[in-house]
Amino acid sequence: MAMAATEAAFHFLDNFQKHRAELAIKYTPTQFGRFSTLIKMALKDHEWQQDGGPNETGEGYSRKDTLAHRDEWQQLGRGFEGRVFKYQGNVIKVFSSERTPLRNCMPGTEPRLRWPTEIPASLILGGPANEPKRENRSGFLSVVDYYLSPSTGNQAREWHLVTPFLPLGNLGKLAYHLRRSDISYTVRELDIVFRPSIERLLEVLGGMHMDSGLCHDDVKLDNIFLGSSQPILDTSKLEAGSATEWLLGDLGNVRERDHPYHVSNLWTLSGNLPDCRANDVLRLLKVYMTFLRESMVEPAIFDEEFFQDSQPWSRLFWLIWEDAQKGRGLSASSALELSRKSAHRPTDKPRENAYIDRQPREWWDFLWRMIAGNSVARHWAVKKTLRISAGDAVARKWGLVLLLSVPRGSCDVDTL
């Protein structure tokens, strides 16, 4: 009994140390600095201030008024890293000072003041909201304000990031509205309307990768927002100008290409590609396919067409998928070229046996198809193919994050 208890203790300690080390790698600061001349010029006159963001007082916004009416903030959500509120025309993200992995240090502070990576990343990529139409040019959510709140009583100071409230929500909400509308759209109809939107995001990712040397690392359905002011369904038939302006948000996981996380076990065991830039592109196409599928009243139709290459949207995905799997230098620009030149016209003849050809040939897969039937098997095959995973739930459990918080790497030099 004592030997078994000792062995269990050693097993737990080994897993605890291993997963804490992996988490420490993940939460190493992002090294900003590989900027294009354009970004350097935009940042040249910017002063990083903990109590003075880019737009403390501006059109439709006052920080003093916002803080004075804190009891009127409408909570939109809560997560491990903090809470999200809406007040008037803005969204306020409040980062929990105790639980948020504040990976970066604010430049020029002594002693070092940690702050959320999302704040400098949003300012660099999205820019201040008071610049006319800045968010339309950048393709990212812009920043209304950021600040470290003053301490009140026993409440610790917390970082706040203020961004514009976008009433149409995110891509998940758009899919929900399309699925619940009175008209049943085909996948091809949706692709015709929204293909320019995904092509624009490929351009945005390409600029991010080349101009800043950064990867998003968290492209998913809920992190793509609808910047258009037009209603989602303003007529009986979906129009090309409706809800097609897509913006990337949630930049808290932005990292440079050579960040140690991109070669860690947490990264590779989640099925990510070695090159984070190619991984961003593949994830974006997976998100687009998921959006199309979740917009369908009958997703079984999507599932069948997805594997056949008979439709432009499915052919685009598999061309990019094959480039990624075979290491053929997948990039945002190459994916954009494929979308514009190679995947717009439908083929006359669907690819035969495409579903079976693209699935594992182990005996249990054959048995699963025999038991569940092709329709159910296809459903799970699509889910598996489009699955996006970069979670660290297991590492958090073994690393006792709820008790010990997230391990934080060194932050003894300016990382901006």
Structure description:
The chain is α+β, with helices and mostly antiparallel strands. The protein has 2 domains: 37-165, Phosphorylase Kinase, domain 1, CATH 3.30.200; 171-393, Transferase(Phosphotransferase), domain 1. It has helices spanning 2-26, 37-44, 63-68, 118-125, 134-138, 171-180, 187-212, 265-268, 276-294, 299-306, 312-325, 332-342, 354-357, 363-372, 374-386, 393-398, 401-404, and strands at residues 57-58, 61-62, 74-79, 82-87, 90-95, 104-105, 114-115, 145-148, 159-164, 214-215, 224-226, 246-248, 255-256. A 5-stranded antiparallel sheet has the order 3-4-5-9-8, with no helix packed on it. The chain has a two-stranded antiparallel ribbon with strand order 1-2. Helix 6 runs parallel beside helix 9, helix 7 packs antiparallel against helix 12 (332-342) and helix 14 (363-372) crosses helix 15.
